């Protein structure tokens, strides 16, 4: 079966940075609704269009096509007293940002009674090479199309 609009696509992928370091890979296939539903990077979706089970694609994406550029306004230094718990690098929490609404911040450093928090995606600012292999393709159900996402095992339920 060929990937087309309103196909449910399952794939394995690997993501690499510009230095060819592996950033992420699937253990189990990911599944998304194909056809402009924002379930996968648009450039990857474009490359997968009209592919079949077993086909492979490789797409290199600039930051704007992947996780965005780093926004210095999303990096803040906060007094440790502002946190309800003891913080350490790697912790994540949500906070309101006046321009972006609720942002997930990651603690990147703690020193001298202060914490550096970063609301950028950890891969923001990076050129990404995305390699994928199509594991399965099926027609989406009417309900999946109406809701704009895949239903079923390991997926969203209503």
Our count of helices gives 2
Task: Summarize the main sheet.
Answer: 5 strands, antiparallel
Structural class: mainly beta
How many distinct domains? 2
CATH class of the largest domain: Alpha Beta
Q: What is the fold-level CATH name, i.e. the topology of the largest domain?
A: Chitinase A, domain 3
The run of helices and strands is EEEHEEEEEEH
At CATH's second level, what is the architecture of the largest domain? Roll
In percent, how much strand structure appears in the residues?
Answer: 35-45%
| First and last CA, distance | 28 Å
Helix content: under 10%
In summary, what is this structure?
The protein is mainly beta. It contains 2 helices and 9 strands; from the N terminus they run E-E-E-H-E-E-E-E-E-E-H.
Written overview of the protein:
The protein has about 160 residues and is mainly beta. It folds into two domains: about 5-65 and about 125-145, Chitinase A, domain 3, CATH 3.10.50.40; about 70-120, Thrombin, subunit H. About 10% of the residues lie in helices and about 40% in strands. It is built from two helices and nine strands; from the N terminus they run βββαββββββα. The chain has helices at about 40-50, 140-145, and strands at about 5-15, 20-25, 30-35, 55-60, 75-80, 90-95, 100-110, 115-120, 130-140. The strands form two sheets. Strands 1, 2, 3, 4 and 9 form a five-stranded antiparallel β-sheet that branches. Strand 1 (about 5-15) and strand 2 form a beta hairpin. The radius of gyration is 19 Å and the shape is elongated. The mean pLDDT is about 95.
